[in-house]
């Protein structure tokens, strides 16, 4: 019997690679997102595997919009979240619009008056708990189900504390459903896409990755990782492909449950 997996946010930066890896591992994959459309293809293989995914629309905050997909689901992955409470940052960091540091750093409790849901609490915590609580209901599959939440290793310098606080609050809420769901709480660090790196992309994300890698290398070679505060500040970067491989590996291992730390992701 082929396992199936629902990836909420499956057309996002990480979600697309989780869909890809699941397809390569023989899963039946459905991506659920606001648009219901596949991501832009970057290679011939992207074009091939995206054609094997069921791309569907839903509102993660409204279980009625996706309950029919949960009825035969073995696994769900929540790959939805925000780093800043500013809708422009994703386009800027991925090089889709011109980088504007002043605009990027204009975060606050709710900078988007026309979108009250674009907050840490709603996007990072509430959306995950709404999904987990719905999936935990007994009418969805009689056997133990897997709920994977894409959390974070820790916050980044300059990022409001609400980011990591909302991630940890979501983890805590999911763990309270451990009797009904097998929780996998993945904590990647700063992520990049291997395909972008191989193509020599010069977008903001790629440039930031290079800076973080240099800082991490300097900490290792020059400081010998002897200064704890520096160790906490500069953490290894990780590719979306590596995170996806680690996540699918743990989904396939019925004995694993709990936190998947950055070091475990890097060594998967």
Automatic annotation (TrEMBL):
Pfam families per UniProt: Epimerase
Protein's name in the database: LADA_0F04610g1_1
Residues spanning the signal sequence: none
Superkingdom: Eukaryota
GO molecular function: protein-containing complex binding
SUPFAM superfamilies assigned to the protein according to its UniProt record, in alphabetical order: NAD(P)-binding Rossmann-fold domains
Domain NAD-dependent epimerase/dehydratase, first and last residues per copy: 5-80
GO biological-process terms attached to the record: ubiquinone biosynthetic process
Organism listed in the record: Lachancea dasiensis
InterPro entries referenced in this protein's UniProt entry, alphabetically: ComplexI_NDUFA9_subunit (IPR051207), Epimerase_deHydtase (IPR001509), NAD(P)-bd_dom_sf (IPR036291)
Any one of the GO CC terms: mitochondrion
């Amino acid at each position: 019997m082929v396992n199936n997996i629902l990836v909420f946010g499956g057309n996002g930066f990480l979600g697309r690679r989780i869909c890809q890896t699941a397809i390569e591992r023989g899963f039946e994959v459905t991506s659920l997102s606001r648009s219901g459309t596949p991501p832009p293809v970057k290679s011939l293989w992207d074009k091939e595997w995206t054609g094997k995914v069921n791309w569907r629309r839903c509102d993660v905050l409204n279980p009625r919009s996706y309950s029919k997909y949960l009825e035969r689901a073995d696994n769900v992955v929540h790959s939805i979240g925000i780093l800043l409470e500013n809708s422009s940052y994703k386009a800027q960091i991925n090089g889709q619009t011109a980088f504007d540091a002043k605009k990027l750093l204009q975060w606050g409790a709710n900078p988007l008056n026309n979108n009250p849901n674009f907050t840490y609490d709603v996007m990072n915590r509430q959306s995950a708990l709404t999904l987990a609580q719905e999936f935990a209901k007994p009418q969805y599959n009689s056997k133990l189900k897997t709920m994977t939440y894409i959390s974070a290793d820790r916050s980044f310098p300059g990022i409001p504390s609400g980011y990591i606080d909302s991630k940890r609050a979501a983890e805590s809420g999911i763990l309270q459903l451990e009797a009904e769901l097998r929780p996998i709480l993945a904590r990647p660090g700063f992520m990049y896409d291997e395909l972008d790196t191989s193509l020599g992309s010069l977008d903001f994300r790629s440039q930031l990755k290079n800076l973080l890698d240099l800082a991490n290398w300097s900490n290792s070679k020059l400081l010998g990782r002897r200064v704890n505060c520096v160790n906490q500040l500069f953490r290894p970067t990780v590719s979306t492909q590596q995170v996806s491989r680690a996540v699918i590996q743990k989904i396939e291992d019925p004995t694993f449950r709990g936190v998947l730390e950055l070091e475990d992701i890097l060594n998967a």
